[in-house]
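YM 10:42: Phytanoyl-CoA dioxygenase domain-containing protein 1 sequence, as discussed on the call
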Amino acid sequence: ECDELRQRMTQIVDRMDVPRHCRTTFSTYHDQQLREQGNADYFITSGDKICFFFEKDVFDDKGEFTVPKQQSLNKVGHGETHRSFCLRSHIQKCFLSQGIARKLGLVNPVILQSMYIFKQPRIGGEVTPHQDATFLHTEPLGRVLGFWVALEDATVNNGCLWFIPGSHSSGISRRMVRTPKGTYPLTDFVGRERAYDKEKFVAAPVKKGGAVLIHGEVVHRSAENTSEDSRHVYAFHLMEALDTRWSPENWLQPTEELPFPPLYTK
Ligand SMILES: O=C(O)CCC(=O)C(=O)O
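YM 10:58: structure's back
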């Protein structure tokens, strides 16, 4: 399954249309602002599509790749990867996620988003310490669960996850919210990420095919990848929809046509 997913992603990247705002030449401060606005628009509308997010400096000032295309992406997300192209059936059938969710007592889990994360060799960027509920906020808290499946060995050298044990029980310190319609930037933060003691993080290396379950409030991070190996991962987030309010201020919003799909097939 891991290899199938990797092959499928190789095809998608081969055929990808690079988003225009990545290709455009940006030379002035104003151009730079346009690029940032393009990035923000692209992100906030990515909830129901396949969108491509690149590592830093993978385009030159003419918009041409400076690295092989297959090694340029940071991640692909956040919607269509689970709504179609077979990955939804991977989530529902293959990754044992239905069985795990049932064992955890989830009554009506829905799939919020999914991401294929590359952590490219040598250039894979770090993911700074955060809690997923900062971006995927519910009332009450404690209803979001990440499934993070290693499609290759994830090691301390190539950027495995690190966690602060016990940090899931201290609430959240920051939320990403949509700003009022017609204003820019499109999202903002309320509150601030706490300063975390680096020494408190514990590494969680896993073998290819291993799954890590991420509590929505646990503080986690991953380091940059300076090794020669990639660290591909398929990650998706579930929400227990029973008696849960999805915040209308979240960046990611379901619509009537595209509600969050249920995890359970029967
Ligand atoms: O894969 C990574 O490096 C980070 C993933 C992550 O933070 C998440 O899935 O919540």
